[in-house]
């Protein structure tokens, strides 16, 4: 049972998932600090110094913290954009590597393929031609 557990933990999918979660957690911290330290102050600057986190609507005795929701939405959009840019960069890098690894056509092989096709066409023509009477 211990051996099965070890195989399970060392499978590629489990390790990839663990790495993804760890990187995602670290990226979340970076995005939160970027959002709260740079982006939100810029938004507040253009909104006449309104601090979104303190934006609250009150109806009766109930408070609706709209500002924190708006701040979370902005943080979500920023996170999505950062992830999009990372994935796009990785895809571009992988595409370049795939193009470099592409097989370069061999001239000798192409010539041999052409000869094979000619021979196949000749043999097909010989069997379908009618004999000529003299």
UniProtKB/TrEMBL annotation:
Extract the GO molecular function terms from the UniProt entry: mechanosensitive monoatomic ion channel activity
- Which UniProt keywords are present, listed alphabetically? Cell membrane, Ion channel, Ion transport, Membrane, Transmembrane, Transmembrane helix, Transport
Asked whether the keyword Membrane is assigned, the reply is: yes
- Identify this protein by name: Large-conductance mechanosensitive channel
Q: How does it assemble?
A: Homopentamer.
The protein's matches in InterPro entries, at most eight in alphabetical order, are given as: Mechanosensitive_channel_CS (IPR019823), MS_channel (IPR001185), MSC/AndL (IPR037673), MscL_channel (IPR036019)
Task: Identify its membrane topology class.
Answer: Multi-pass membrane protein
> What is known about what this protein does?
Channel that opens in response to stretch forces in the membrane lipid bilayer. May participate in the regulation of osmotic pressure changes within the cell.
**Organism name:** Periweissella cryptocerci
Domain of life of the source: Bacteria
Q: Which HAMAP family match?
A: MscL
Kindly list the residue ranges recorded as spanning the membrane.
Answer: 12-30, 68-87
Pfam families (UniProt xref)? MscL
What GO CC terms are in its UniProt record? plasma membrane
Signal sequence: where? Answer: none
Q: Per the similarity annotation, which family is this?
A: Belongs to the MscL family.
Q: What is its main location?
A: membrane
Subcellular location per UniProt equals: Cell membrane
Which Gene3D superfamilies does the record cross-reference, listed alphabetically? Large-conductance mechanosensitive channel, MscL, domain 1 (1.10.1200.120)
